[in-house]
Design goal:
This protein has a single domain, classed as Rieske [2Fe-2S] iron-sulphur domain (Rieske Iron-sulfur Protein). 6% of the residues lie in helices and 44% in strands. Strands 1-9-8-4-3-2-10 form a seven-stranded antiparallel β-sheet. Strands 5-6-7 form a three-stranded antiparallel β-sheet, with no helix packed on it. Strand 8 and strand 9 form a beta hairpin. The longest helix is centred in the first third of the chain and has 7 residues. The protein is globular and about 35 Å long.
């Protein structure tokens, strides 16, 4: 991951470890405002769209375990690395590249801006 305009420093690693999940506002030039959620599963940090594509439930409110999140509304299970809906209950969601550098959580969100 680079350091250009598409890479955003969202929080410290200590913060996401404490919070478990946290949402951040972004603006896509064509699709408008949306939220991206960060997740800590006890080992790694991930970033995906904050809303379940089925009924727009907040995925940040779901159970997080071993690289997965379960939608709190209908139980759809998403892979946090890829955004794939593992049980095929609904469509896949967008996943974003996240990494930790110097104790900070960076996420690559090409073509977007923080809102």
């Amino acid at each position: 991951m680079g350091t250009g305009a598409d890479v955003f420093d969202l929080c410290s690693l200590d913060d996401i470890k404490r919070w478990g999940t946290k949402t951040f506002d972004f603006r896509h030039p064509a699709r408008g405002y949306h939220e991206i959620a960060l997740f800590w599963d006890g080992k790694d940090v991930y970033a995906i769209e904050a809303k379940c594509p089925h009924a727009l439930a907040p995925l940040a409110g779901g159970a997080v375990f071993a690289g997965k999140v379960q939608c709190p509304e209908h139980g759809a299970l998403f892979d946090l690395r890829t955004g794939e809906c593992l049980d095929r209950y609904t469509t896949d969601t967008a996943a974003y590249r996240a990494e930790v550098r110097d104790g900070r959580v960076l996420v690559s969100v090409p073509g977007e801006q923080r809102a």
